[in-house]
Structure prediction request, 183 residues.
Amino acid sequence: MGAARAGIEIVTGDITRLSVDVIVNAANERMLGGGGVDGAIHAAAGKELLAACRDVAELRAGVRCPTGEARLTPAFGLPAKWVVHTVGPIWHGGGRGEPKLLASCYRQSLQLALGQGAKSIAFPAISTGVYSYPPSLASTIAVRECDGFLADNPSFEKILLVAFRQQAADILRQALGALGTKQ
Ligand code: ADP
Prediction:
């Protein structure tokens, strides 16, 4: 447990600037860009990213990536090599499967990164912006899933949990500190 936790780092700032193998995008089901971190990633990666997203197969009209799942594209103009696009749940109070869906975002993103041979990944605080997931609840899920993944995959080097603002970093730090002491 302790060793796994050592692989998780909380950083504050703009995820698009990070030189890691994979950065994760909090996308929407259409995968054609949006606001928040999605807009920042598309702006920094360049137009090729939009074209790559458009090439991802639609499962049904307007849905390239269902909520709770993840899809991989190259990262084009970003310092990262790959972008994993994942779609977090919209918070409706917690009774519509939101915790399971959010956990699935982290798990699927990490598995895609692993499958690509990546050793490092950076996550934004998925669902905690426009999708309104309470940051403390979301942070608990994020650190639990990342810790579990590192315990299972000790050769994976680093998971960065990126807070855009200091307050979000404090909440993530609290969740990391509480890891293993409660469910
Ligand atoms: P969602 O729709 O999943 O809620 P948002 O993009 O609205 O996605 O917000 C997710 C989180 O990403 C928020 O905590 C927001 O503050 C953060 N965020 C926004 N821009 C960036 C960025 N450039 N780098 C890192 N985090 C960001």
About this structure: The mean pLDDT is 96. Residues 8-182 form a domain with the Leucine Aminopeptidase, subunit E; domain 1 fold (CATH 3.40.220.10).
